[in-house]
TrEMBL record:
Residues 1-21 form the signal peptide. InterPro entries: Fimb_usher. The gene is caf1A_2. One of its GO terms (molecular function) is fimbrial usher porin activity. PANTHER family: OUTER MEMBRANE USHER PROTEIN, SLR0019 PROTEIN. This is Fimbrial outer membrane usher protein StbC. Keywords: Signal. GO terms for cellular component: cell outer membrane. GO terms for biological process: pilus assembly.
């Protein structure tokens, strides 16, 4: 039994040594003063009363709030106004900082010139719709007959025959006239109007036409019927595109604001505006002269109305946009009377370019065996220069 004390003594020494070794491995307890001087929160950034939807780590140190510069830039603040790295928002010049502990938000009030100009779209951006092509054929017809009290009678049949597939469509039109009774001086028989194959490319808003085509023309030139080939723009393939420049209305909001736009007395749309400079874009399609009234309303219900006169010219092109067509073939004569009466070869070209939202440059040229014609035009909202053209034989 004398062994037990020695065994207990060994166990006690083991426990003591284990506890002592464990105390050496643990870190020192934190300093209470340091814990009270620094803390890290994850807060939502509110900039000039606008919720940026950004939750970022915010360090509170010695009664100041620090935020990473990259997080502030992501929330919309300009990089040239912020120092790199960690930014002391409490000491940053021109900035007021407030901590909303109940809603876990950091409220920032920054100078107005810090906020970038934001485009505000009315009704959303128009989207391009990809057409679904099919295969098939159709026949349109219009039958007409008449009989007068003098005994004259006639019947006529107009038709359009069309075949279409994924590549394009083929179309042929004409009419058949037949005298039933009476005077036989009227023209009878079948007359062909147009026979043409058309291939379209929706993405680029262009089309090819082979057969009986009409040359493109401007407001100060003339078009002719040609048997040949043509290539050019067709903006009707892209209804989502607005080819002419629309007015933009700019302003500045101090706080989040609701905006209503009235065009010539009718409400054209409503939207929400963030604090800072803004430009209203994607306005409803308007044309000609008119008056717009922009009504802004803040959270307290205060309203401010601004009247803005405007003038929109639909014959202008947006900056950088182009339009035009090229046609080659033989001049068609006696259209509607003869089926295959084609004359000399000719070529025609038209080109338009939007130099700015206020100026569109236009040019047109034609050439035949004994004729050459060329001209230019500068169209704008303030007027237009006279065309210049010449003929050479």
């Amino acid at each position: 039994m004398a062994v037990w004390p020695h065994a207990l003594s060994g166990v006690a020494m083991f426990l003591v040594s284990s506890v002592y070794a464990g105390d050496d491995a643990l870190p020192p307890p934190p300093d209470g003063e340091v814990m009270n001087e620094q803390a890290v929160f994850h807060l939502t950034l509110i900039i000039n009363h606008f919720d940026s939807k950004q939750v970022v780590p915010v360090t509170w140190r010695q009664n100041d709030f620090y935020v990473a510069s990259v997080d502030l830039q992501r929330a919309g603040l300009p990089a040239d106004k912020l120092p790199p790295g960690e930014v002391n928002m409490s000491q940053l010049s021109g900035v007021k900082t407030e901590y909303d502990s109940g809603r876990q938000r950091l409220l920032l009030s920054v100078p107005r010139d810090w906020l970038p100009e934001r485009p505000v779209s009315f009704g959303g951006e128009p989207t391009q719709i990809t057409p679904q092509n099919g295969q098939g054929a159709l026949l349109n017809y219009d039958f007409y007959t008449s009989h007068t009290q003098h005994g004259d009678g006639q019947a006529s049949l107009w038709h359009e025959l069309r075949f279409f597939n994924d590549v394009g469509f083929f179309s042929s039109t004409g009419y058949l006239r037949q005298r039933l009774t009476g005077d036989n001086n009227q023209q009878e028989g079948y007359v062909r109007y147009d026979t043409v194959f058309t291939a379209m490319h929706e993405e680029s808003a262009t089309q090819w036409r082979l057969g009986d085509v009409v040359s493109d023309a401007l407001s100060w030139s003339s078009s002719v019927r040609v048997g040949g080939i043509s290539w050019g723009r067709d903006f009707s393939l892209r209804p989502d595109l607005v080819t002419w420049p629309l007015p933009t209305f700019s302003g500045e909001a101090v706080v989040p604001t609701a905006a209503d736009l009235f065009i010539n007395g009718y409400q054209a749309g409503s939207t929400q505006i963030q604090p800072g400079p803004f430009t209203l874009t994607n306005l409803p399609y308007i044309n000609g002269a008119g008056e717009a009234v922009l009504v802004t309303r803040d959270a307290l219900g205060r309203q401010v109305s601004t009247t803005l006169p405007f003038y929109v010219a639909s014959d202008l092109l947006k900056t950088g946009m182009t339009d035009g067509a090229v046609t080659f073939g033989s001049l068609r004569r006696n259209y509607g009377l003869e089926n295959f009466d084609y004359g000399p070869a000719l070529g025609s070209a038209t080109y338009r370019y939007g130099a700015s939202d206020y100026i569109t440059l236009e040019s047109h040229g034609e050439g035949a065996k004994s004729l050459a014609l060329a001209g230019g035009w500068r169209a704008g909202q303030t007027g237009a220069f006279r065309r210049s053209k010449w003929r050479l034989k």
